[in-house]
Amino acid sequence: MSRKLTVALPLLISLVFAAGMLVQKLFSPVEYVRMTPKNAKMTRIMELIADEYMEDVDIDSLTEEMLPLLFEKLDPHSLYISANDYQDMMDPIMGSFEGIGVQFNIQNDTIVVVQVIHGGPSEKLHIQSGDRIVTVNDSVVAGNGITNEKTIKLLKGPKGSKVRVGIKRADIADLLSFEITRDAVPITSIDAAYMADETTGYVAISRFSQNTIDEFLSAVSKLRTKNMKNIIVDLRDNGGGLLFAAVNLANEFLKAGDTIVYTQGKKSKPEYYVAEGDGSCGDLNLAVLIDENSASASEIFAGAIQDNGRGLVVGRRSFGKGVVNEDFQLNDKSVVRLSIKKFYTPSGRCIQKPYNGNIDDYEKELLNRYAHGELNFADSVIFPDSLKFTTRTGKTVYGGGGIMPDVFVPIDSSTFSDSYLKIMNSGLVYDFAFAFSEKNRSILQFTEPHDMYKMLTKAITMGKIEQYAKEHAKTSLLLDKSAPRSEIQRVETLARCYVIRDVYGDSAFYEMYNADDETIKKALDSFKNKN
């Protein structure tokens, strides 16, 4: 059965990644399920524990702990979501949350505004990056053990509610007072959009949310004004999201009648999602970047492009999540997310990797890939012939464990010193960069990112970072004197890019940081070879 893109799905379908990764949700009313006495064994057991057990037991708490274990026995993508966790899981996929609209960090026991979110209520009041939130609703929050969790509870809240904050701003002696009316704050799904070379646009998508297609089309429109002929869609580390968002993105590239994906369950006939042929990107050469953390909706898009021969897939084998989930909300607002279908790429392959009923084994599968050498050598990946499929262009592809790229790019296998790893995992580089940008913000904001980076090559050196570490009693985080020049350059580059992000945001950060990215270079080479 063919289904047009504009037809709303009748039920809530979500594509869920592995435990610990991004929860993915389709925007549609959830189906309510009432418990019935059809099978009363579990109810009777809980009654016995409540009535007869030798000590008092919190049955509600016990139930919350038992339910996740129950769903682990089904498959790794069916799960129970408590009512308290549900909204937080929804926010990134719905594309917004309700709050004051800032990204923050805790620095020296103080809430520091790292970035003001465009379109949020804090931007309208001209709150700035670098501002320190000292009081919330007249209560002092600085210097008393403030945490990320406490900050979120203080600043996040329903639309229309108000919160008073006292802010310390550099070079201003008095505390600034703001009354912020909380509102819907957009969460963007596109991290970066810029020109990677004279004719190639680059767009990094972090998740497939309700707003992804609009954000993508806006980015494409701007890049076309800069002579874009090719486009790189970066889905590395994209854990997935909404099925319809992936379908709509594929529709922008495929011809009318091209199959994008189809789904099927034990009680349903195949449902086909087919391109309408009205996409805006049919004239662009395309490369899709994936890695072992690209899952779900990312694999739908990559599979549609690969199976239709529309562009090149570059990187490493994707995660391998090929099931479709439906959400059922219980009376207490908690949610049962159940795998009800599998999805298939246009060639007919299901890319869901095997599951033996042990969630620990499933979560360690990516580590096993590394141990077996797969992330370094393409020929270490072995697919059984029983899972062989042929695309419409005659290319051989395989199911049973992710999307294998057309162009393989090994993971960076550099061996780093212990002191380098300690620095990179400590937050020292980030803290240094934030302090540097705060001190020089009035100068930096008048410099374009490329020019700023050139200036920072002289202003930010390993010596300056080490001096900062000594001043803040972090001498244990210094590089060994024998550290190779390559490690020093990596630390310096990251510090300079962090400064650029503090001033210009994520897109400028990625534009500078990606300059030496091998996967992007492979994609750029593919366009040159094609031309």
SSE order and pairing:
Layout: E1 2-3, E2 13-14, E3 31-32, H1 41-52, H2 59-72, E4 79-81, H3 83-94, E5 96-99, E6 102-107, E7 110-116, H4 121-124, E8 132-136, E9 139-140, H5 148-155, E10 162-168, E11 176-181, E12 183-186, E13 190-195, E14 200-205, H6 212-224, E15 230-234, H7 243-251, E16 259-264, E17 271-274, E18 285-290, H8 297-307, E19 312-315, E20 323-329, E21 335-344, H9 359-363, H10 365-371, E22 388-390, E23 396-398, E24 407-408, H11 418-426, H12 428-439, H13 441-444, H14 449-459, H15 462-471, H16 485-504, H17 506-513, H18 518-530
Parallel strand pairs: 1-17, 3-20, 14-15, 15-18, 18-19, 19-24
Antiparallel strand pairs: 2-20, 4-21, 5-12, 6-7, 7-8, 8-9, 8-10, 10-11, 13-14, 16-17, 16-21, 20-21, 22-23
Oligomer: single chain
Annotated CATH architecture of the largest domain: Alpha-Beta Complex
Supply Rg.
25 Å
How large is the count of helical segments?
18
What's the β-strand tally? 24
Can you tell me the overall shape? globular
Q: Name the CATH class of the largest domain.
A: Alpha Beta
List the uncertain runs: 1-33
The helicity comes to 25-40%
Structure in words:
By secondary structure, the chain is of the alpha+beta class. The chain has four domains: 10-94, no CATH class; 96-186, PDZ domain (Pdz3 Domain), CATH 2.30.42; 190-324 and 347-413, 2-enoyl-CoA Hydratase, Chain A, domain 1, CATH 3.90.226; 418-521, no CATH class. Helix content is 34%, strand content 21%. Helix 16 runs antiparallel to helix 17 (506-513). The two termini are 38 Å apart. The relative contact order is 0.11.
